[in-house]
Structure prediction request, 194 residues.
Amino acid sequence: MLVDLHCHTHPRSACSALQAGQLVRLAAERGLDAICLTEHDRAWDEEALAALRAASPIPVFHGVELTTDLGHVLAFGLPPQQYSPVAAEIARAAQRSGALLYLAHPARDGLLRVTRETVEYFVSVEAANGSDSRIQNIAAAGLAKGFRLPGIGGSDAHTEAEVGRAATRFHMPLRTDTDLLEALATGRYEAILR
Ligand SMILES: [Zn+2]
Ligand SMILES: [Zn+2]
Prediction:
């Protein structure tokens, strides 16, 4: 099952030109089996999420991309009340809630801000990012080898053209956010560039 774990939609991510309805339609057309919304620093409200899910041909999961002092962090299973720009706070909240944190596009700005201590906040990194260059993805995939879980993949789509460029392959069917979190925790998945 191919899941794009990194997607931005308009207007919840100001930098995105992609409507959520277009995202799910294009994702299905391009062979993805599910997507995960990861807006910048904000959650979807329950009502809007339910409406999108009802209209979507594929499952829609919900995560977030938080802008933090250690760079961009993809968080899955983190309650919106726990969103924070301070990575240490997010890490504490993730421990309490069972959320999983991944360092997003870790090779993008050429400067890894994590230290020997703060790297422990993350179960892994985003090893395939559809908006990054080939060399950045090679570097990210190399980094992923040192973590507890494998690296994940996602398009980081902000436009229609970018939908489906990268994804994560899972070996079990996923329908809910809980399924996604459990599947991530097993570590039985791979990052895919497409
Ligand atoms: Zn980012
Ligand atoms: Zn992003």
Remarks:
- The mean pLDDT is 96.
